[in-house]
């Protein structure tokens, strides 16, 4: 039996095995794991800060997403958008990816060399934030990342989300959608 015949036999046998996990999920998981291996570990207290901010009251085709070493955006078949942020060297790229997946978004990275004015106005209904954004645990507990699931369908009309990060904090807010704010 040569290599081609062996591969043909294996393909025939593989076709008879039922898969409980969709292929897209297996591929996505593999990409996430590979991306993590390339990412330098960043010291981040942001996960705790996001949890505190989100939980306290305060003022692409499905399954295929954009994945970079610094952040990952994946639109799911149910319409939700999974976001994982490890670093934010390119806030405009993350903002564009979210908007492409149907999430009106504004991403601002605040540091002394890149001070940006905030063009957004707070939406003023913080209780809705928990219906729109769900914090999720990173796939690996030692991963310094912020992971969340966004439900664009839960956003009230003419609203969007804003993520503001600095070296030590990350804030997630609902904002009034406008051309200057969420595009």
Shape: elongated
What's the number of structural domains?
1
Termini distance? 60 Å
Strand order of the largest sheet: 1-2-3-6-5
Give the tally of β-strands: 8
Query: What radius of gyration results from the CA coordinates?
Result: 19 Å
Q: Ranges with pLDDT <50 over ≥5 residues?
A: 39-60
The helix content, as a percent range, equals 25-40%
The description of the largest β-sheet is: 5 strands, antiparallel
Note the total helix count. 6
State which percent range the strand residues make up. 15-25%
- Structural class, judged by helices and strands? alpha+beta
On the 0 to 100 scale, the average pLDDT is: 74
Keywords:
22% strand; alpha+beta; 6 helices; elongated; 5-stranded antiparallel β-sheet; 183 residues; 3-stranded mixed β-sheet
Plain-language structure description:
The strands form 2 sheets. The chain has a 5-stranded antiparallel β-sheet with strand order 1-2-3-6-5, with helices on both faces. The radius of gyration is 19 Å and the shape is elongated. β2 and β3 form a beta hairpin. With 183 residues, it is α+β, with helices and mostly antiparallel strands. The N and C termini lie far apart (60 Å). The protein has 6 helices and 8 strands, in the order αααβββαβαββββα. It has one domain.
């Amino acid at each position: 039996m040569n290599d081609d015949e062996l591969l043909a036999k294996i393909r025939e046998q593989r076709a008879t095995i039922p898969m409980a996990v969709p292929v897209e999920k297996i591929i996505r998981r593999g990409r996430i794991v590979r991306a993590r291996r390339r990412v330098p570990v960043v010291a981040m207290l942001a996960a705790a800060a996001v949890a505190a901010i989100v939980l306290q009251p305060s003022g692409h085709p499905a399954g295929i997403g954009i994945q970079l070493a610094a952040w990952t955006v994946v639109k799911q078949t149910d319409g939700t958008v999974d976001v994982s942020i490890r670093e934010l060297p390119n806030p405009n790229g993350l903002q564009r990816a979210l908007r492409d997946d149907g999430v009106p978004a504004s991403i601002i990275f605040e540091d002394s060399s890149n001070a940006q004015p905030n063009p957004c106005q707070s939406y003023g209904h913080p209780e809705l934030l928990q219906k729109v954004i769900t914090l999720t645990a990173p796939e690996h507990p030692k991963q310094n990342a912020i992971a969340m699931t966004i439900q664009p369908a839960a956003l009230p009309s003419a609203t969007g989300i804003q993520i503001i990060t600095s070296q030590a904090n990350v804030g997630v807010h609902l904002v009034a959608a406008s051309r200057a704010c969420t595009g």
